[in-house]
Each structure stands twice: as structure tokens, then as C-alpha cells.
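Q: How would the C-alpha cells look for this protein?
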Amino acid sequence: MDGGGYADAAWWGTAIADGLWKDGQVTRRWLVVDEARSSKGKTKYAERGEQANRPRNFGSPFNLPNHPVVGINWYEAIAFCEWLTARWRAKGWLEANQFVMLPNEPEWEKAARGGLQLPAQPIVLSPQQCATLHRVLAEQSASALRIANSQLARRYAWGNTADPERGNYDDTGLNATSALGCFPNPDSPYGCEDMSGNVFEWTRSQYGPWQLKEGDWSVKLKFKYPYLMDDRERLEGGDQIARVLRGGSWGYGDHFARAAYRARYLPALRDDVNGFRVVVGFAPVGSTL
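A: Here is the predicted structure in C-alpha cell form.
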């Protein structure tokens, strides 16, 4: 926000195309229980909206400096990636063909579970090293001992057993987000923290068409998993195509924190359990980056 990102149309092309950004404000929506239409055993929902120029609950129990940002929708996450790409390029930290972006589903899942082989120790790079990413990784990989991934199908980023002392989900009992790195040994095989629990994380990947009709919402599965090279990464899907979130959150059970679980949500909807993480890479196939 201090960088003026909400006010600058340059970062909001995807939201503008879908009619969800104007005059420095993004449209955010959420679902509420429709008490007038609900009955015992049958909950009905209604949609509400707002124009905003900052994350919801900014500066309150959520969105502390060392916590994941929440209360933002998918369009805000995309705009942040555009803004950070330009900022890092200006510093010389990115090459012209590199981008900061949301991960797609297989990128996210590999970061959580690891590949066929793993470095004996996670390879950690600074943002300043992104412009020389391939050279740095090649040098470190050549000298790093590689081991087989013994838990390729691990249920959680840390292993196969749910553990409320290694990740923030409902059994942990915090009822809010937590600071990055506050749990012992929560890391994925690549050293990524908080991939199981804390907040659901937006991805680029589409799930399918969303519908809210007569108080009932539903999502039709269009893009199945395992992953296929199709047009599911297109940013131009529109605001009625649900996007995939991964990772579980502080408000949900361990089932949702599994590395394989696919959550889905309309891109304009915000929630205090949803956030994001970014990756650095080259323009994905089928994208307009």
C-alpha cells in the first residue's frame, strides 16, 4: 500500500478487464448467510461487495508484518505480482523475461512435497539472486548432495502425520494467522514454510464455473487433476471462474491442510483464511504475462 499500488492502473489489467477496478479501488465480494431464506438444515447464502484500497482487517489481529496477508482476493494477489515484478526489475533483480507470479497447482504441490530427488539441504536464494537464478542453482546443485525423496506422496509438507504443533490449522487452537517460522520443523523438503496450514494460498489455476442461484452456491469441476497442459492458467477466465487455492488454513481441519487438497473460490471473493505466496519464473505457457 505504501508503494501506491492500489492507485496505479498499471498493475490492475486483469481486474480492469473484468470490470473490478476503478479509480484506485478494487471490488471485493464475500458470502453471508441469508437468514431470511435459510431454514433448519438448509443454509442459504447471499453475496455482498465493497470497494477497497487495502486488505480487509489491515493492522488488526490479521495482516501483521510477519504474518501472511489475508482479506484479499485473487485480483489483488495478481496485481501485487505485477507491482513486485516491476519493482524488482528496476533494482536489477529480475531479467526482462522473468516474472513474479502466483504458482500454478503442480508448482505449488512440488514445493510442498518435493521432487523425485532433493538437495540434502534446502537451497535458499535472496531476491537479488533471481536475475542469475539458473546459474546460481546450477552451481549449488552441482555441489550439493542429492538424495531420494522417501516421502514423495507425503500428506503434509512436513510428512504423513497431522500435527498441530507443526502447522496452524483448527486443532492448533490459535483461531488466527500465525507468524512465519513460529512452528518447529514445519518446512517442506525444499525449505518452504507454512505450506500446510496458516492460510489457503491462491494459485493461477482455474477450477471451473461458479454459480450462486437461489441462495445455493456450486462450482462445476472443469479442470481436473492430475495436471494437463491446457488453458487453465489463463488470467482472462473472468470473475465467474473459480480459482484453485492450496494449503489449508488456521480455520479448517487437517484434511484441508493436505498437500493434495484442492480448494476453490471465486477470484473476486475475499476471506480471512485466504492469502498467497509468489514464485519467480518465466512466462507460463498459455498466459499473457
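Helices lie at 13-17, 74-90, 105-113, 133-143.

The longest strand covers residues 200-213.

Upvote if useful.
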